[in-house]
Amino acid sequence: MILDDIRQYLRPGLAQTTFCAGCGHGLILGALLRAIDAEKLDMSKTVFVSGIGCAAWIPSPHIDADTLHTLHGRAVAYATGVKLANPELTVIVVSGDGDLSSIGGNHLIHAARRGVDLTVLCANNQIYGMTGGQTACTTPLGAFTSTAPKGNVHRPFDLVELVRAAGSAYAARWPVSRPIEMTRAIRHALQRPGFSMVECISPCPTHYGRMNKQGSIREIHAAMDQNCITPDQAAELTRAERLQRIVVGEWIDE
Amino acid sequence: MSPSSATDTAKVDAPAQPTSRFVMGNVACAEGALAVGCRFFAGYPITPSSEVMTTMANRLPEEGGVFVQMEDEIASISALLGASWTGAKAMTATSGPGFSLMMEGFGYGAFTETPLVVVNIQRAGPCTGQATHIGSGDVLQVRYGSHGDILPIALSPWSVQEMYDLTIRAFNLAERYRVPVFLMSDEGVGHLRESVVYHSDFTVTNRLRGGPQDEPFDTVEPDGVPPMPRFGDGAKLLVTGSTHDGRGFRRIDHPDVHDRLVRRLVDKLEHQTDDIVRVERYHLEDAEVAVIAYGFTARAAWAAVERLRERGVRAGLLRLQTLWPFPAREIAALGSTVKRLLMPELNLGQLVLPARAATHTEVVSLTQVNGLAISPTTIMERLEAIR
Amino acid sequence: MSESQARSHWQLRFGGMGGQGVVVLGDTIALAGALSGWHAAGSTSYGAQARGGASKSDVVLSRDPIDFPHVEQPDALVLISQEAYDVYTADEPRPPLVIVDSFVVHPTELGPTVRQVEVNATQLAIDTLDNRQGSNFIMMGAFLASTGILTVEEVDAAIEQKMQTRWWELNKRALRAGFEAVRPRSAIT
Ligand SMILES: Cc1ncc(C[n+]2csc(CCOP(=O)(O)OP(=O)(O)O)c2C)c(N)n1
Ligand code: SF4
Ligand SMILES: [Mg+2]
After folding, report:
1. Confidence category of residue C66, pLDDT binned at 50, 70, 90
2. What is the pTM assigned to this prediction?
3. Do C34 and B195 touch (CB under 8 A)?
4. Does C have 3 or more CB contacts under 8 Å with A?
5. Do residues C136 and C80 touch, judged by C-beta distance below 8 A?
6. Interface of B with A in 261-300 (CB under 8 A)
7. pLDDT tens digits for C128-172?
8. Domain B279-386 CATH class label
9. What is the ipTM of this complex?
10. Chain B residues close to C43, C-beta within 8 Å
């Protein structure tokens, strides 16, 4: 799983990640470290901030750098403090959809509004993985979760639209089945001053996959890939239709 | 003696000194923070604490610091916790509702040993209560409000001079013990205007950074304070609010690691009460009854005791400048010399509980929760009645 | 006046409508006291009262360190709105000295223990200063003349320390106008 090109960025002594087999979060770690490698970031001047959840364990303890594993929902607010107090540090937030956009949604939009120079990776598995598969604010309509046994009745957030409306300088969305594009988007996010977010669509086979009968991890990746559409294609759809698809690409705001 | 901190009693008595100013307690608090090196402030407006924030908004950039108004109090305490790990001395100021919102963050600060200062200008709660009026209903919340076992350091100023001096002390204690320190003031002191000397007659404590051989989250002694490296220095820190070992690795299924950590974090303060706890004694040498008081209420208690003394009543005052760790030893000693104790509080009797646990002498509780300061007359009458 | 100067403890209350400037009056007298060797403490009423209705600024001046810094029983009231007059003169025991701007306050009979000083401060400000805003410091001057607590020059020092330069001239002139307006009367009583 762990490839030699990024081993140098991993904290020594860790045998493996604690993610379930097939979890997309490990792939996000890989994409992030490859982007960091390509950008030649000085790891002694880079701080990784995360909240609470499976996704929050992507940087902590895996990445061999300063890591700040905070409280559920608060990663962006902590990161704001780190970045403002020492602007020389590169500050990267990696956390889950529930963490960043539900309990922490207010911090997310306000950081985007302020234009704090942060790069935020939202590992969106459309569910609360760590606590046992409850509905998130990103769960698609009709999807089954442990708190929506008859299917989710509430519309999900479009996180890219959300942070763009709040003033983000850069936003992108890719699923883990497109690692090259995802890595490139993370590089662009790192290059871009101001607030950037990359939404990384990540499967949770253990909960979401099981409850929605998504099949094997290969099937999940294939379905995820087929569900991707471009912004142009999305423009032809209604809002409700769009929310059932994965609109991929990058959105740059001046 | 005019009311002043135990460290510096002389200066306030000369109000016309060139460095003496006449300001509000909240302003003196901000100036104390700046004097001791606070360089980060994050906050959210709330009466009656806002003047701390507005003063910081004006003054902090002048001193090369960072001021940020956050989206709420949870964000404020979070930003402080992040800023502190970059090495900055950080502070926020709030009042009841905001203080409640910060509770989870206080636990994070205690558990990760992150120094910072939180100023609570208490108002009349519960809930939104009486936003512009005095109260001191948060003195147990600061001790027990965040889940799990943590022991905070909480200080209680009673004058504008102490808003300056104890803010300085709060930072020094935070740095010395690597903990959040609470300045538990109240509307009476925060909005009081008095003369204050912005003196520089104090030592500045800075956290130890340690070296590569040190563990940032444990010490050899079971009650020690580990050194604290900062982000960006190559320490590759693992900071987490989950149970962690000395290097910061999560150890969420290890009973012994959890036990040691929880106990060390309490013991590192509990075993240092000589350094942390401070009280002031007025007319206690021959007192037959005494008042135990803190914050603005202690001013009324002082007046009451002085007036009773003029009438020949042998009354005295024990003024608590440290609320937590609780001055139990000082109260026990006092209890053994007086007939009865009186504890006036702007709540329904909060610190009277640990006071009663500290002494066999009866501690009478005088409570007032109408948003008004307790008057000297009220305390005098009760003292007369119980002596 | 000799009695006034001998006095070692004063509790003062400035009352008016929210936004009328009573806080400035209280702060100025407290600062003047502090600069002149008194111990001083000031506090103001906030909140609903700060947005209209009666608002007050309390000052304690003492030759000794001030134990309790709030006003318990005012020795003098300076009132610049009818509502403040109605509210604060109703307190028992009645304050011994009440100074009002008679342009806006219509005093009632408060009994033999209360000395009421009426100054038509707003009218005086319009007539002699050509600026209605001078009325507050006219009241301050009247207060100084009625109590002898501080000199006009001592209050000048506080004005200079506290206020922007553009207000100095107006307020110092107002102070003197108010002082002169009351001095003869206070000498007789
Ligand atoms: C204040 C608070 N509420 C609830 C929790 C419990 N909790 C832990 S993780 C989590 C959800 C995490 O979901 P997400 O951020 O989407 O991460 P994932 O596990 O799906 O990767 C919740 C609700 C908590 N730790 N703190
Ligand atoms: S529960 Fe889901 S999100 Fe969490 S590690 Fe397992 S697969 Fe990944
Ligand atoms: Mg999730």
Report:
1. very high
2. 0.95
3. yes
4. no
5. yes
6. none
7. 999 999 999 999 999 999 999 999 999 999 999 999 999 999 999
8. alpha beta
9. 0.97
10. 188, 191-193
Q: What is the pLDDT of residues B63-121, one digit of tens each?
A: 999 999 999 999 999 999 999 999 999 999 999 999 999 999 999 999 999 999 999 99
CA end-to-end distance (rounded Å), chain B: 26
- Average pLDDT across each block of 10 residues of chain A; the chain has 254 residues. List them in order: 80 91 97 98 98 98 98 98 98 98 98 98 98 98 98 97 98 98 98 98 98 97 97 96 95 90
The answer to whether the bond into A61 is cis (omega within 30° of 0) is yes
A46 found inside a domain: yes
φ and ψ of A101, to 5 deg: -115, -10
CATH number of A176's domain = 3.40.50.970
CA distance linking residue C18 with residue C81, whole number of Å: 10
For an interface test with B, give the residue of A14, A42, A46, A82 to mutate (most B CBs within 10 A). Answer: A82
Q: Domain locations in chain C?
A: 3-119+147-163
Q: Point out which residues pair with A170 in neighbouring strands.
A: A196, A252
> Cβ contact (<8 Å) for C42 and B22?
yes
In angstroms, rounded to a whole number, what is the distance separating the alpha carbons of residues B272 and B324? 12
Give the residue on B whose Cα is nearest the Cα of A18. Answer: B250
Whether residue C43 and residue B376 make contact (CB cut-off 8 A), yes or no, is no
Lining ligand 1 with CB less than 6 A are A 52-55, 72, 96-99, 123, 125, 127-131, 136
Helices C168-188, C152-162: inter-axial angle, 10-degree rounding: 160
Contact C31/B20, CB-based, under 8 Å? no
Contact residues, A window 69-128, toward B, CB-based 8 Å cutoff: 69-71, 74, 77-86, 88-89, 106-107, 110
Query: What is the maximum alpha-carbon separation in chain C?
Result: 43
| Domain C3-119+147-163 indexed as CATH 2.60.40.10 | no
Assess whether pLDDT exceeds 70 at residue C110. yes
Q: Domain range spanning residue A81?
A: 18-223+246-252
- Count of the separate structural domains present in chain A: 1
Q: Which CATH number fits domain B3-207: 2.40.40.10, 3.40.50.300, 3.40.50.2300, 3.40.50.970?
A: 3.40.50.970
**CA quadruple B34, B36, B41, B47: dihedral, nearest 10:** -70
